[in-house]
């Protein structure tokens, strides 16, 4: 009987899916590595500088102020310097921002530097951060396109940031058991320089998105007005900003709530970790298992539900139930994947850097405001009532924003002069096909599918 020849040819490898697709893009791999390095440097610098200031002053207030200064200057940098993101080549902006941060931290290491100088340098680093982050996000749209890959890329960078919060401060504390705060700051200088080198030699030079149009501050404020002039974009910005203002309440009040429960430092650590864990899980699932159209379809329902678990605090839950409520609430933040797609679709390319910088500046500022308001409310109403109130008020705001998003859907992107764009068939779906709005207000593919 003749011997049958078996087919030994290897089957073609399946193309990567989900987040794995991002790493097939060389420039994204570079941006990802640079993000991880600069984030590591920022976390280590926050921990080391806080400890250094406490060692020099013995004041818990001054140590806490060092952390607070990481939030406050975002509003200044994000509004007055936002024009940098569009009027200069992106690679140059990113590299210079990293080098400015490295230089600022290097000056912190100077022996005998006064406390005022240390805090001023901390402010300088924080002012630069929104410009860097906004420019990077706008560049991400150029590297990955403004479709699903951009959404996944932005999501992955957020996941890395949340993960860094879970482990970064602990690693920073361990590092300070081995080296002094000043030596730890030197490590930070190295990470910022490494990030600058990666971005300089690992990304392609691209021209500026907008021309030089006069004084920087005036141009930045003009750009902010142009971004905010569009009603649809204003609604989307508020969807980025307002829910986090309410969602930070349990984290801001984790210490007193852990004390009320009598769960000690271990319980406090778990309460601080629960919300980021839920956020990471929700984004990972939505990014890897759901299709782009599905992520957009569930964005508004998730937005309306993400703060509802906080109402469970009205019953004064124990540790286990509190952790479950926080994880579920964090998972609802997956609405941002759909929101990212809408935002990059609506904002004109020439304003994209400024728009992304505004998102970062507003988000950091409003989270700081939310933490402060939660602390004030808890002084009078207690922790459980404050978190419950944040859930109620936040849910009402989210529902109002969802209704506003529905009303503004289909208005179409606007040019930098504020006029609606009329060319083409209007905004495009997550699959890139042009969409038109039917009489019933629902979106339909032009192809009829």
UniProtKB/TrEMBL annotation:
UniProt keyword Membrane present: yes
Basic and acidic residues compositional bias, start-end: 430-449
Membrane topology: Multi-pass membrane protein
Transmembrane regions: 31-54, 60-81, 93-109, 115-135, 156-178, 184-202, 235-255, 261-286, 298-315, 321-343, 355-374, 380-404
Record InterPro entries: MFS (IPR011701), MFS_trans_sf (IPR036259)
Gene3D superfamilies (alphabetical): MFS general substrate transporter like domains
Classification via Pfam families: MFS_1
Main localization of the protein described in the UniProt heading: membrane
Source taxon at top rank: Bacteria
Region (Disordered): 410-449
Location within or outside the cell: Cell membrane
Alphabetic keyword roster: Cell membrane, Membrane, Transmembrane, Transmembrane helix
PANTHER family referenced in this protein's UniProt entry, alphabetically: INTEGRAL MEMBRANE EFFLUX PROTEIN-RELATED (PTHR23513), STAPHYLOFERRIN A TRANSPORTER (PTHR23513:SF11)
Protein name per UniProt: MFS transporter
Gene source species: Streptomyces plumbiresistens
